[in-house]
Structures are given as C-alpha cells and as structure tokens.
Input
Amino acid sequence: MIAYIISLIIYILLQPAAYFVYNNLFVSLLLKLGVLSIIMFYFKKYFKFKFRFDSFTILSGIIIAVIWIIIDDYYPHLGADQSLTWTIPAIFVKLIISIVIAPIIEEFFTRFFLSRWIINTSWEKIDEGKFTLNSFIITVLFFGFSHNRWLSGIIAGAILNYLFYKNKNIGSCVVSHSIANLILGIYVIITNSFNFW
Output
C-alpha cells in the first residue's frame, strides 16, 4: 500500500515543485523520471505484472485516446492549460513518463490497490478485478478528477475499470493505458497540441 501511495504523491507533486524551483521544463521532467524510476525500482516487488496484448486491451487504449482527443473542446477543464516551452529533450522525457511510468503508477494505485481497498481494507485478500458498485464509482471519479480533463478521465477510468473486471489482470490496464498515452503523445507532437500535456 505504501509503495503505491508514495509513488502517486511523488508522481503528482515532484514535477510542479521542481519547475517552481528551477523554472525549466526539461529539468523538472528529468527529475520526475529519475526519482520515480528509483522509487519504482526500490518497490519493484510491488509493481510486478504480466503484459497482456489481447485485442480488447489494445482496442481499449485506442478508444480512450480517440475519445480524449475528440471531446476535448466540448467541456470545461479543471484549471487553465499551462503555457510551457517544449524542447526535443523535454518531449522525449515526457513520452517516457507518459508511456512507461504513468500507466504503471496510476493503474497500480487506482485499480490494483484503491478499487480493492474500497471493498475491504484488507485489500490484498480481494481478488483482482472484483466488481462492486461503490469501488467502480469511486475509482472512476478519482481517476477522472485527478486529471484536468476530468470528463475524458472519467470515461477512460470506466473503460479501464471494465477491462480490469473483464481480464482480472492489472497488466491489461497498464498496456491499454500505455497505448492510449502513446497515441495521444503522437497526436500532440504531430499537431503541436501541447495543451494536452
């Protein structure tokens, strides 16, 4: 439990804190990547999973990315998009964080830990992918409102939850999340839509 909470807190807070101190996007992203890599290596036994590339997992990632992009102009976001200077090194590090680090930390905290902890505080006794209405609603809302694009986050959270219930494998959620972030990252770079980041 501590591994997932610590990782998520650092994932959320480190980059803005570093940017406030150094006023440099690349440095703040690099610090985020470095510190999280060390922490995840230290807690590696808690982040073990098997990659799963079945058709529904892949399709889920594609659907999440497409929805994230398509509905973006049709609802208000939480807070204003940041106006940052994106250099090639910063883009590269951001892609690594988005495709590798973020899916593991977010999926392990939200679906692997939180969805089971809501059912029972002795969460490790709860089977992966167990459905209850309370855990579904709370984790979907948590996932949604932990992103400034809250509506896209809610939809993505619901899809990822369903994937977790269907496959009962956190690896499916990590892969789907990675695919979604990869597609979104490619879209951001090709269309110069850095407001998504």
Q: What stands out?
A: The mean pLDDT is 96. Residues 50-196 form one domain.
